[in-house]
Amino acid sequence: MNTTQGGASPLTPFLGSGTRRAKFGVTPRRAGALPRVDGLLAGAAEVDITPPPGLPKAGYSANAHTGNGFHTRLRARVVHLRAGEVSMAHVACDLLGGSSVLQHLVAAAVAERTDIALAGLMIGATHTHAGPGQFLGTDFYNTFASNKPGFDPDWTQYLVDRISAAVVEAHDTRVPARLAIGSAEVWGLTRNRSLDPHVHNDSVTDKRTDPQRKWVSVNPDLHLLRVDAIDGQGTRPLSALAVFSVHGTGVPQTADDYNADLWAYVVNELGDRIETTSGTRPVVGAVQGTHADVAPALRPGLAGHLDAQRVGRGIGAEAAALWDHLGDDLDGNPELGIAFREIDLDTATAKAGVTLPRRPAVGAALLAGATENLTPVIWRIPPFAPGHPKPHRRDDPHGAKWIVGSRWLQPIVAPTRSFPRVLPAQVLRIGDSVLAGLPFEITVETGRRFASAMSAELAAGTRVIVASVTNEYSGYVTTPEEYGRQFYEGGHTIYGPRSQEFLGAHLAELAACVTAGPVTDESLRSRSWNLQVKRYLTEVATGRAPQRRFVGSATFTDPTARASAWWQLEWIDAAPAALAWDEPLVRIEARDDAPLLEGGRTAWVRLTDDQRCDIEVTHHGEEADGHRYRVRWFDPTHRAGRQYRVVLVANAGRTETPSPPFD
Question: Which of 210, 351, 414, 519 is 20 to 30 A distant from 283 in Cα terms?
Fold first, then answer.
């Protein structure tokens, strides 16, 4: 086993090699109180993590399609805070979830360059279902979360390198700052996709009422961290972090492109509005709240980028209004605190009178799928069909769950060691708020119970924000009542009916820790992984690359109910691995008939590029003279007498190439 404490990555021996398993470990630097600083220092950074085509996508399991390019780019955004004796960094990624591998390897990579330790590094996610998998810390989810199995060390190292660089940049560029955290309610853009289990909660006292009433079934709370930098000219926007509860399933599972789903539009709308009013665009990130049973309120039959855009922009507009409101609450001297615990289920399955099952188990209801993406035929057949709990369960630690393949056969296919065995729990105190992160998808009512358990240990008035899929992906967690109904969420709660109580007790203890002192680090002394390797991030092709050239002429497609209008153009280029997909590839330019400049030519002006949400770039196979690509420019502007062109940006040694004009 390769072990590191800073320096070379523990994945180095497995990069590009033919090994079938990656066995590696880390010994993290323990967090402690740092030399006290007065006031607040903050930094922010953003990196593109869009990969080349060819990686499996995580979230829709076997129903997903391998990525063939991008519609909206994937990014990681970092906000770094340093105050008092505490240093922390929050990373918001356009991925299915956090990852223990990423958290530990990024912490090791930045250990010598920053004062940020593992306990102060939180890696959250938008939970898009259209980003690559294969970077998680368990064989089970590297296998079953995506449409293809395995852990890809090259892709994982790419993520570690990019995220580490962003954390270091945020640390190195930190400046005096002020911050504020606030909350607002967002209605009408989300719905509870699993109403039957939700209304069986004891907290839903009047079950005769419409269960879709807004105060019952969804979590409307939009939380926003606003950070402003202080410089000689006054203040300027530095960073924003939004936390909201809605699944990243606005784009259907049949889509081939990588995308951040509705979250791309949330972030873009918030950033645009701040830039419009202030003249400065901050680093804007977003992560999931308690979203496990919450879906976007899409119009029936209209899943896709157009409706995801409608929902995302609506949330982003509310976030922008909240940003403006927080301008009067900025604090230059907030108290920070860190409490981090890694729960080792091989040695600690009991807490507060609750003992989790020794072995995790997947329920039959998981195979039927969630209600907006049901598995054909299977979802109608008991015991897979939602709402068919096991009637006899007295001695079964998994209660009402029908175990797929039975409790005897499932361990053969999915041994205990393949599941998450270490559960990270983290609480960050930021001023008068605490942000709690767990590696599960958390239902609305479960989140409320977590917040209640934590509030009992915090000062009155402390805002409690609960975030899902943080620092790893470990399935779902429901309340005992929801679990007893055995819908998708309960079938995917792998540690039994009392998981919520067990985890809530841990969070309450961590909440007490951030109240009592600045830093509590209960990470394990060392961590190790043994993961099945499968490679998808291909090496750069060798040999002479073809000359870039456009194929055919631009074509226009009228809008439909599911997609805006678009211009489309194809071109021939080098192999996907020979291009830098995390750098600009395409921009759109326009020119008018008048006024004429010297020489009788009009000037080309940039309209948009692939850093926003309206350009899709996809790969469509290899041909005799190179690889074919397609660009689509969605929702294009039109004006009489105007011409347009696509420009292939200089990238990875490829020269800039404009297309012929079209109109």
Answer: 519
What pLDDT, in 10s, does the model give residues 441-450? 999 999 999 9
Sign of the torsion formed by the C-alpha atoms of 299, 300, 306 and 311: positive
What 547-554 contacts at long range (C-beta under 8 Å, 24+ apart), as own/partner pairs, is 547/572, 548/572, 548/573, 548/648, 548/654, 548/655, 548/657, 549/657, 550/646, 550/657, 550/659, 550/660, 551/628, 553/660, 553/662, 554/644, 554/646, 554/659, 554/662
Q: Identify the CATH number of the domain in which residue 643 sits.
A: 2.60.40
Last residue of a domain, one of 532, 563, 595: 532
3-state secondary structure of 65: coil
Q: Is 363 inside any structural domain?
A: no
Rounded to whole angstroms, the Cα distance separating 82 from 579 reads 38
Helical residues (DSSP H) of 150-261, grouped into ranges: 153-172, 195-199, 214-217
pLDDT at 519 over 50: yes
Neighbours of 660 (CB within 10 A): 11
Whether residue 582 lies inside any domain: the answer is yes
pLDDT tens, 163-188? 999 999 999 999 999 999 999 999 99
Measure the CA–CA gap between 465 and 434, rounded to whole angstroms.
6
Q: How far apart are CA 507 and CA 459, in angstroms?
A: 15
What's the domain range around 566? 549-658
The number of beta carbons lying within 10 Å of the beta carbon of residue 475 is: 25
Please state, in angstroms and as integers, the Cα–Cα distance from residue 427 to each residue in 138, 167, 465, 512, following that order: 23, 19, 10, 10
286 pLDDT higher than 90: yes
Which of 89-103, 552-566, 629-643 shows the lowest per-residue confidence on average (mean pLDDT)?
A: 629-643
Residue 146 has pLDDT above 70, yes or no: yes
Which of 532, 561, 582 is a domain's end point? 532
For Cα atoms 536, 540, 544, give the angle at the middle one, nearest 5 degrees: 140
Looking at the fold, whether 501 and 526 belong to one and the same domain comes out as yes
Q: Are residues 526 and 578 in the same domain?
A: no
Q: Is the same domain home to 229 and 330?
A: yes
Question: Is 15 inside any structural domain?
Answer: no
DSSP string, 320-361: HHHHHHGGGS-BSS--EEEEEEEEETTT--EETTEE--SS--
CA dihedral 347, 349, 355, 358 (to 10 degrees): -80
Residue 565 CA to residue 545 CA, distance in Å, equals 33
Q: How many residues does the chain have?
A: 663
**What strands, in cross-sheet order, belong to the sheet with 626-634?**
69-70, 615-623, 626-634, 566-573, 549-557
Tell me, yes or no, whether 432 and 493 share the same domain: yes
What's the structural domain count of the chain?
2
CA dist 88 and 287 (Å) reads: 17
Which residues 6+ apart lie within 8 Å of 466 measured at CB? 289, 290, 436, 437, 438, 442, 447, 450, 451
DSSP state of 662: B
Looking at the structure, do residues 558 and 522 belong to the same domain, yes or no? Answer: no
Count of CA atoms in the C-beta half-sphere (13 A) of 499: 35
In whole angstroms, give the CA distance from residue 216 to residue 200.
Answer: 11
Same domain, 516 and 575: no
User: CA torsion, points 454, 459, 462, 468, in degrees to nearest 10?
Assistant: -20
* Peptide bond connecting 220 to the previous residue in cis, omega within 30 degrees of 0: no
Same domain, yes or no: 246 and 304 = yes
Tell whether 577 is covered by a domain: yes
563: three-class secondary structure by DSSP: coil
- CA 304 – CA 308 distance, rounded (Å): 6
Rounded Cα gap, residues 341 and 426, in angstroms: 6
The reply to whether 525 and 571 lie within a common domain is no
